[in-house]
């Protein structure tokens, strides 16, 4: 029995590793998290460029880390389930919006903008990312991954998806140390925009893959 259980587990993991849909879901999570890592640097950005008062630093941190999480989760879930009826499509659209927002953030004249406008821009972008985090594993259910593969799929998705935590913070910090001032932050925003764009490309592929997968399942049932 133990040998049979071990063989079935190995077969399950092998089939997961061969499943392109699961890899696309994993890299979807990867690109969301790579952009999310950049949110940490919004506070030093506002302090150094906008000269954010100390009294507002704590308030901004609470809103950015806690309030947006509480609000972003339900909003992301509601839009993906009730309006778009597809988490993968929601991630695709929000990646496109994130890319455009980051390009805009690079182009804005931050040195001459009021601090409250800077706070609003960064918090608005952060809200989008938190809605993505709420649903980035949902495509596993949308893709109708078999129950005996769900655990392995989640394991692979988590391993790849959370990988940016190992290097993104160091990468962004290194760039800011190497390029003091607004230039460093613009480079970081540019890298985040590249991650978001790659996420949009992967999401488009995932949407097509899930659609194809559903058609194949319907054909098999017919």
Automatic annotation (TrEMBL):
Transmembrane segments: 21-43, 49-69, 90-109, 115-140, 152-175, 187-207
Domain of life of the native organism: Bacteria
Keywords: Membrane, Transmembrane, Transmembrane helix
Signal peptide (residue range): none
SUPFAM superfamilies: MFS general substrate transporter
CDD domains: MFS (cd06174)
UniProt-recorded name of the protein: Major facilitator superfamily protein
Organism: Escherichia coli
Higher taxonomy: Bacteria, Pseudomonadati, Pseudomonadota, Gammaproteobacteria, Enterobacterales
